[in-house]
Amino acid sequence: xxxxxxxxxxxxxxxxxxxxxxxxxxxxxxxxxxxxxxxxxxxxxxxxxxxxxxxxxxxxxxxxxxxxxxxxxxxxxxxxxxxxxxxxxxxxxxxxxxxxxxxxxxxxxxxxxxxxxxxxxxxxxxxxxxxxxxxxxxxxxxxxxxxxxxxxxxxxxxxxxxxxxxxxxxxxxxxxxxxxxxxxxxxxxxxxxxxxxxxxxxxxxxxxxxxxxxxxxxxxxxxxxxxxxxxxxxxxxxxxxxxxxxxxxxxxxxxxxx
Length: 258
Ligand SMILES: [Zn+2]
Hints:
The chain is of the alpha/beta class. It has 9 helices and 8 strands. Helix 5 (134-143) links the parallel strand 5 and strand 6 (149-152). The longest helix is centred in the middle third of the chain and has 18 residues, at 105-122. Bound molecules: zinc ion. Zinc ion binds next to loops. Residues 7, 9, 37, 93, 202 line the site of zinc ion.
């Protein structure tokens, strides 16, 4: 069984002390490939170095909406250059966050659109971070067409999910699936077609229920698979195969050259 963690911040400080061990444990659990999205320009080069150094790590480069205050105007042309030079698997993570207070919506929008244009011009998919802003993200995606991608930790409606699928996106599901009280997310995971879903941990955030309150880790991805299988009443091995195929297809992982 092979699983892909399509959203994992394995590059962050929380893993500095035991990153190799975490990756070893992940591989032992069948989690052989991890997509590592960037959040700000300061970490692009260390993220790229890490992905070059370790097997099975795939970089995405971008400017995360929540870190709006650390992004500067010159980071956009810098992103364009670094994307052209290093050809990451995606531009990300990018998007709109209307949940966190104090993040200017129009500034987020300009940053998002500029990064969608970079993705479009480079013919790359995107990794989306969206909270309480699905309709605005969808209308923006209809204006600036990119090569699909993933909507990470999807928490919109079934109708919005369908619109992402129509635009060539897959929807990311992770730790929230493991909580029985996550009725909405579990309902979505049950109703969506199997080819719409990719798995993710978002480690070190969003721990699975059995490790609640601890650091999350890509080695826990099989718990997400197990919950997905229970919710859909399907076999874990079938969903492992399908979600891995989905991740490879939408992020073109098999074409990626280190
Ligand atoms: Zn993230």
